[in-house]
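Researcher: Please translate sequence to structure tokens.
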Amino acid sequence: MSRLAKLLGMGPKPIMAKSTYTRIEDIKSTSYMKKTAGSGLLMKPDTYYVVASVELGNTTTKCILTATNLRTSRTYLLDKTVKMTRDIRPPKKGEKVFGETVWKVELTKESVSEMVKNTILESLEKAHVDIDKDLDFVVRSTGVTAGFAAPEEVGELIIALANGCLEAGIPPRKMSPAMSKENFPERLQDYTYIDHVMFDGAVVSVLPPTGRAVVANEMEGELVTAGIKLAAKWTEIDFRDPCVSMDFGTTLAGRITNSHEPYSRTVGNFCGLAGAISDSIIRGTEKVDKRGGAALDLYKKGIVKGADWKAAKKYAEEAHEHVDIRKVPEGRERFGTVPVDPKAAYSAGTTLIGCDVGKNGDEIPDLTRMGHEIYETSGIHTMFATLDHVSAMVVKRLIEEAFEEGVVEEGSVLGITGRAGITGKKPELILEYSKKYFEDVIFVSDALAMGSAMMARCMNSIGTPKVPVGGRHGGPCILGQRRKLQKK
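Model: Translation complete:
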């Protein structure tokens, strides 16, 4: 921040790592200048790694196609196809319902597979991406966890996602790690280190909590952490370990990592409700679907223009009287409707920090009634300003709880992603609340998709040692340390 800005009392501007679009036709023709011994400068073609991120969330279902430049480690978007999860067809006769979204949309293997298949095919067609020639890998993930009896049952949904991919024509080999260098296309063989290091479960140098699954959306937290690290390559921020990540989708996900090398440990996990809080309030307007309506349905750029921000903050404080943020008690099986296993978490040295509305969402109707009053009294502009304050206050309270529990290392960087964390004026408000705790904060769009691109690279040992994504702040690539560790 400039000296003039400080003198005028202006706060720092949020650092946004926005997704950059490109076309499959363009990445096939990009090149760079390379120095060679004896031949001087030569033009060399850039190599890209194309990954499909297939995501089934409580509010949206997406297929996001990314292409990563394996020289610069910068990842581009080829396409982003988004459907509303509430539009998944109802179960047919004879189909078994294995779970539901946080908004009670029932799911069967057949209905999920059908939605996933159609979303993938639409995305591939729009991006002109050929499954056989262009697509390298597919990563599946889900934030739908609230309607499951235990964390382990998410596996059933992952199978349904896999079936949808197969029905779309994705071959199994593009959904599982390669076994040797020869399994890669020739253009990728110089970029894989599979002959030097194996995939041992660490994604971008972070080990997951050991033992049993501690929270149902563990994979989502893993992916968004990896995605924020990768997206940071578009900024000046070095978002490597130790770090804190928060994903504000419908449900809350994210991690706190330490600075151990070569692999850091997951010392904290976030869970519970996030965007669902804003969605509950917006339903009070009666302008969105009562079952699956979301703030996303009414949001548009500039909607907070003319808002009464003083009133909005007061409304948000009243809403937070229903919001419970704390370390998850050991006896709970759910927190914020999400299945958790605190005993396993604490045995593994991982602190669970949750966000709930009442107990397992039982005070959501109170927020909807409050939303109706806000809308009737102050209108839609102040309503959305209230939502900005609500989300920023959630971040503030999560940060305070994490520091109170002593799980955030000095020098950690904060990363925020998800619709309920980066839209409107939320970034500015979050910066204000977090400046006491973090020197650097980054806001990322599509972190889960970026994380899928990173997960695919880790699973296939495709690295960029000259521009490392894993390791510690300011540190070198950890390839050498990993090789020594795996030789023991």
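Researcher: Any highlights?
Model: The longest strand covers residues 60-69.
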